[in-house]
Design goal:
This protein has 11 helices and 13 strands. It is of the alpha/beta class and about 325 residues long.
Length: about 325
């Protein structure tokens, strides 16, 4: 377990996954063997990707997660060290590091299968033992690729120390409920995750494929059903939508609005949602006192830029790259 004494402004408790990505012209049909024109092996996992994305925006970040005592765990530690990203690793002796299989077609769309392995064995006691780091932080960022008791332990620390609690509810856990969401200040689901949360928490059925075409008023009303003060729905090629609870607009001029996507030459969309969530919390720190919309604009740009590079964690853009591409 690598320890680092630097004070983090953002704490990310989440997953590490070793990604195996195949590049194809189109997805194979059931039973078809499709020849790939490229292969990429690299670090990933929603939590780790988001920690890298946040740190590359120039904000002090600490990642807390679980890996196996194996070659992929060594790769994780080496990449984090090369990134100068402080990590508190729980190294599991009897569970392997998580791994994924990703197939990316020529449009940048992807199909993913994962074995969460060590991520589902993150010990709540290990998380609670990091309380000193929480005491000096400002933001807690979580996802759902870990066991829920570890997530609950992190949220409890976030509440105790008054951190802004941000959840990227991906992938939606079958036991995620209203009590979990009630502890969050902000969530960042994509269309599918938003629809699943509505079904599980509010017992409302919506077709995820129609969300981007719904009116702002309709999306806002649906978002308010989740009971979270701020909901940011990432809509892929359709940009994103923001919904605030009445009376708490985080400096914005409107309670709901949407932002169009940025124009980029996408080759791999796999980590775009992670780039968005990581850059968003970083921007909330960097742009403290500014309207929430400023942070969302920056996150939207970071997510778009990430799609121009194959891979996940290595594709997360740096703050200077985002500014150089899109301006301030």
């Amino acid at each position: 377990m690598t320890q680092d004494t630097r004070r983090a402004e953002v704490i990310v408790v989440g997953s590490y996954i070793q990604d195996h990505a195949w590049l194809v012209d189109r997805f194979p049909q059931v039973g078809e063997t499709r020849r790939a024109h490229g292969f990429n092996l690299g670090p990933g996992g929603k939590g780790f990707n988001q920690a890298v994305a946040c740190a590359r925006q120039g904000v002090a970040t600490l990642f807390i997660g679980a890996i196996g005592n194996d070659v992929f765990g060594t790769i994780a530690q080496r990449f984090a060290a090369d990134e100068d990203l402080p990590c508190h690793w729980q190294v599991c002796a009897d569970v392997p590091t998580a791994a994924s299989s990703i197939v990316v077609d020529r449009s940048g769309a992807n199909l993913i299968a994962i074995n969460l392995a060590a991520n589902e064995h993150l010990d709540p006691a290990f998380v609670t033992a990091q309380a000193d780091a929480f005491a000096g932080a400002r933001v807690l960022l979580l996802q759902l690729e870990n066991n829920l008791d570890a997530i609950a332990a992190a949220l409890a620390l976030g509440v105790r120390h008054g951190l802004l609690r941000v959840l990227n509810p991906a992938p939606v856990h079958p036991q995620a409920d209203a009590a979990l969401l009630a502890q969050c200040d902000l969530i960042t689901p994509n269309e599918t995750e938003f629809a699943l949360l509505l079904e599980q928490v509010a017992h409302v059925h919506v077709d995820a494929a129609t969300l981007a075409t719904r009116s702002d008023a309709d999306l806002h009303a649906l978002a308010r059903r989740l009971g979270v003060p701020t909901v940011v729905i990432t809509l892929g090629a359709q940009g994103c939508f923001v919904s605030h609870v009445d009376g708490a607009w985080r400096g914005d001029a409107h309670g709901c609005y949407r932002l169009a996507p940025e124009r980029v030459a996408a080759v791999d969309s796999t980590g775009a949602g992670d780039a968005f969530s990581g850059a968003l919390v970083a921007a909330l720190v960097r742009f403290a006192g500014c309207p929430f919309r400023d942070a969302v604009v920056h996150a939207n740009r970071s997510a778009a830029l990430s799609t121009e590079t194959v891979g996940t964690a290595p594709a997360m853009p740096r703050f200077e790259q985002v500014l150089a591409r899109f301006g301030g």
